[in-house]
Write the structure tokens for this entry.
Amino acid sequence: MFEIVEKRQLCHTVYLLRIKAPRVAAKRKAGQFVMIKINEQGERIPLTIVDSDLKEGTISIIVQEVGKTTTEICALGAGDNVMDLVGPLGRPTHIENFGTAVCVGGGIGVAPIYPISKALKEMGNRVVSIPGARTKDLLILEDEMRAVSDEMHITTDDGSYGHHGFVTQILQKLIDEKMKIDIVIGIGPIPMMKAVSNVTRPYNIHTLVSLNPIMVDGTGMCGACRVTIGDEIRFVCVDGPEFDGHLVDFDELIMRNRTYLKEEKMAMEEFTYHEGTGQCERCET
């Protein structure tokens, strides 16, 4: 069992949890994740390790209520436990002094872009960050990102804060202004990562994206997280999660991520019925 020692709400439906996991905290590096299962009946889900505290032996994860399992995790609080936590998994981000690194995070993607930005800054890079959200109220880790950025451009889809528009517009603006960009790292919704890759492709700017496919075991055995990178089939859990954005088949990834939409909807509806009324149209209880 792994104890939750702190829970903090970052914005609507998004929470930060600090969990006691000293061995994971000691080994984790930027870009890696853990697989979490909260109880015997629960599913395993991958969550990025956002930060760690070696002295306290804790790791921090950020969870957004999207489906049944993430809603259950977000309902936990300090003093509660998760049954299984396995990690650190995945290949860590390759960190070196590239020069100028532009880190683009969209929505909940700001969570995994933060530890990468921090590691790049510590390695001596000039970090230009572009965190974005649909609206100001949904922007997360603003202070943390600002602390590890030499230059930061915030965007919101509705214009409620920062630039009115998308992260790709700021990225294109920086390119048009002839900023020397040595690497771009984009993490967020799949359409956003595809758009970032499309912006940088004509300029041959090295671009990494962190993929988020369906994942079951996180160790390469099930094959559920396979993706097409160029002309190769790769497994995100052991070969990634980061890949060259110019080689990713994003359309295939989008299609595969829709495989269980019907089942996910049914599970959430059943959970809502039980939690709200104690009754369920699909169960005998």
Notes: Confidence is low (pLDDT under 50) at residues 277-285. The domain at 2-89 is CATH 2.40.30.10 (Elongation Factor Tu (Ef-tu); domain 3). The first helix runs from residue 22 to 27. The radius of gyration is 19 Å.
